[in-house]
Automatic annotation (TrEMBL):
Residues 89-149 form the PAC domain. It catalyses: 2 GTP = 3',3'-c-di-GMP + 2 diphosphate. Residues 181-319 form the GGDEF domain. It comes from Jiella pacifica. Its EC number is 2.7.7.65. GO terms for cellular component: plasma membrane. GO terms for biological process: cell adhesion involved in single-species biofilm formation; negative regulation of bacterial-type flagellum-dependent cell motility; regulation of DNA-templated transcription. It comes from the Bacteria. Residues 7-51 form the PAS domain. It is an enzyme of class 2 (transferase). GO terms for molecular function: diguanylate cyclase activity. This is diguanylate cyclase.
């Protein structure tokens, strides 16, 4: 019996001095171990939580289940609604893993923690405790988030790239068709940009693309509007809650802003200025494309028509039908 108690005491002391922040709940959800590393992570002394169910105060500003509580309650199905990421690989055995932003009220503010929780059973298979361990991976998460932003942002102009444009278009399409609100799209091309590049060089071309991105963004004034670099010298604008007439008005505003900027294009002559060809399409009361791809193809066809019409103009699907 003494040997068994000795092993038990050793296990507790080992848990208390683990370098990994760890706490243990008994089968009723009361804290029985809150180790030194957990004290350092949260700023909460073991004496303040041992014997209580207030372990949540170390990680959240309002009472809510920790992962260990979900193990006791067999509540794995709640993880997606409570945690940023569910990483569980063996949920059938009530071994849960998750990641979450936690607000450590006393010491560190908002931190991103990787959390693991699993049950401890006695010889008869009865639950006697749950162990939860935590790792602060805030630095890795912030680096990952920055990479994800960069992956969706055009590195030259700083506006969304094609990948993010596609995501926004799909999301706005679902909203528009689900609520029967209009949705418009502009496809924009810089006229004779090759002549500009060939004459002034690619550094000047990059500066020009950044300037055009600024001008287009300035004319898409609502927070819900999305201006993206679609590729090369082509831009695209998503205009939620906007019908075709509204899209044409925005397109003309963009064309006028570029005209007023008076950006030289000496590749076409000493007095030539950059102009824009714009195609507009919409999902609205008069236009019913059946998918976001069809909406995009419609705007692209209108853009092609604008180029074929001599450039420096705005065209819509209705102008194609008239032709």
């Amino acid at each position: 019996m003494k040997a068994k108690k000795h092993h038990s005491d050793f296990a507790v002391r080992l848990m208390e001095h683990l370098v990994v922040p760890t706490f243990v709940l008994d089968q009723t959800g009361h804290v029985i171990i809150w180790n030194k590393s957990c004290e350092r992570l949260t700023g909460i002394a073991a004496a303040d939580v041992i014997g209580t169910k207030r372990h949540w105060t170390g990680f959240y500003t309002e009472e809510r289940p920790c992962l260990a509580d979900l193990v006791i309650a067999h509540g794995g199905s709640q993880i997606p609604s409570l945690y940023t990421v569910d990483c569980s690989t063996d949920p059938d055995r009530d071994i849960f893993s998750a990641e979450n932003w936690c607000h450590l009220p006393i010491v560190a503010g908002l931190r991103y923690l990787a959390i693991d929780a699993g049950p401890i059973h006695d010889e008869d298979g009865k639950l006697i405790a749950v162990v939860e361990t935590l790792r602060d991976i805030t630095v890795q998460k912030e680096a990952q988030d920055k990479l994800e932003v960069l992956a969706r942002q055009d590195s030259l102009t700083g506006i969304p790239n094609r990948r993010l444009f596609d995501e926004y278009l799909e999301a706005e399409w679902q909203i528009a068709t689900g609520t029967n609100h209009p949705l418009a799209l502009l496809m924009i091309d810089i006229d004779h940009f090759k002549a500009y590049n060939d004459t002034l060089g690619h550094l000047a071309g990059d500066h020009c693309l950044k300037r055009i991105a600024e001008l287009i963004s300035a004319q898409t004034r609502r927070e819900c509007d999305v201006c993206a670099r679609y590729g090369g010298e082509e831009f695209a604008v998503i205009l939620p809650r906007t019908d075709l007439a509204g899209a044409v008005a925005v397109a003309k505003r963009i064309a006028r802003a570029v005209s007023l900027a008076r950006i030289r294009n000496p590749g076409l002559g000493p007095t030539s200025k950059l102009t824009m060809s714009i195609g507009a399409s919409a999902y609205d009361a008069d236009n019913r494309p059946i998918s976001p791809d069809e909406l995009l193809r419609s705007a692209d066809a209108a853009l092609y028509a604008a180029k074929q019409s001599g450039r420096a103009c705005v065209r819509t699907p209705s102008s194609l039908r008239a032709a």
